[in-house]
Amino acid sequence: MSCDYLALAQPGVQKLSPYVPGKPVDELARELNLDPAGIVKLASNENPLGPSPKVLDAIRAELSELTRYPDGNGFALKKRLAERYSVGIGQVTLGNGSNDILELVARAYLAPGLNAVFSEHAFAVYPIATQAVGAEGRAVAAKNWGHDLDAMAAAIDENTRVVFVANPNNPTGTWFEAAALDSFLARVPEHVLVVLDEAYIEYAEGQELPDGLRFLADYPNLLVSRTFSKAYGLAALRVGYAISSPVIADVLNRVRQPFNVNGLALAAACAALDDVDYLIASRKVNDAGMVQLESGFRRLGLDWIPSRGNFIAVDFARDAAPINQALLREGVIVRPVAGYGMPTFLRVSIGTEQENARFLDVLRQVLAQ
Ligand SMILES: Cc1ncc(COP(=O)(O)O)c(C=O)c1O
């Protein structure tokens, strides 16, 4: 008789549902016998610009080092980040994507009997990382689709060790301003680590969103996590980072894999940080694409949640699953968000002008059927 290997897994893991990523282009092409070149993917909040030539040069230069382990401390990238943000190098933790940072926090600070607080409709990895280590996830009801920071502060108890807040949030795109963040941080007890997830901050700076790093000096329990996957366009390479107090960075360093960020990724991220023009172009394409999608939705009589990310959640006021299926049949991949408690919405990543136009055109036809 063979063992029940599911029953042998940790109780939290047994009840986990795996993260569902956006459908890859090749998978849809295989399923529906479509030409991959004709498929538009606006499903994973990726950068539609394609990689920066400077990043590609940096990767090529690094290829001859493939037989070597990367610098396990990521010194060069940490140094650049520390200089860029005027923090100590000992305050920087590198991750295999910022996803890795979220998991390092959960592994280091959560355990059975402890809990993490996050918002309803927030990034799926918060509950997954929490549950995977046997801790309790407390999802606090959202307010106008965004974080209800007062209710989140009120949900904290003596067993809370982590609060995850995303600014802006994915998949809703909602955000909060500096004063709201400051008064929230002032209410969170010192024994609770606040993970301020700023995966999309580069798209939103100057648009009412605070730079979380400004609060580090006042709140030693704050950790700001960011990524190279979005505005810097390095999603495939998996590089993210956290900036926190040196003590928290030291704790995360104890549980991280020795070589959690690979050599090509380290070289690419260094080059990406210096490539100011690419960042400006990313922001410009995103701002224009947001206006394009919003005006398209307005023409179609659809409602949406105003967003400060590189994506927008559009409301069909009815089950969005058949609309998603119809879009897929036409070679357009967006993201269903029923799993986030938003069954009438689809989340659409901002693409190039042509991709957005194609999506809007197909959507118009689908809605007219
Ligand atoms: C809010 C948020 N945080 C973190 C991540 C993780 O991104 P990555 O691991 O690519 O840095 C994502 C990715 O979509 C996200 O939306």
From TrEMBL:
Entry cofactors: pyridoxal 5'-phosphate
Protein name: Histidinol-phosphate aminotransferase
InterPro entries: Aminotrans_II_pyridoxalP_BS, Aminotransferase_I/II_large, HisP_aminotrans, HistidinolP_aminotransfase, PyrdxlP-dep_Trfase, PyrdxlP-dep_Trfase_major, PyrdxlP-dep_Trfase_small
Catalytic activity: L-histidinol phosphate + 2-oxoglutarate = 3-(imidazol-4-yl)-2-oxopropyl phosphate + L-glutamate
Keyword field contains Membrane: no
Pathway the protein acts in: Amino-acid biosynthesis; L-histidine biosynthesis; L-histidine from 5-phospho-alpha-D-ribose 1-diphosphate: step 7/9
Gene Ontology molecular function terms on file: histidinol-phosphate transaminase activity
Keywords: Amino-acid biosynthesis, Aminotransferase, Histidine biosynthesis, Pyridoxal phosphate, Transferase
Domain called Aminotransferase class I/classII large: residue spans: 39-363
Source species: Pseudomonas songnenensis
Gene name per UniProt: hisC
Keyword Amino-acid biosynthesis in annotation: yes
Cross-referenced CDD domains: AAT_like
NCBIfam families assigned: hisC
Subunit structure: Homodimer.
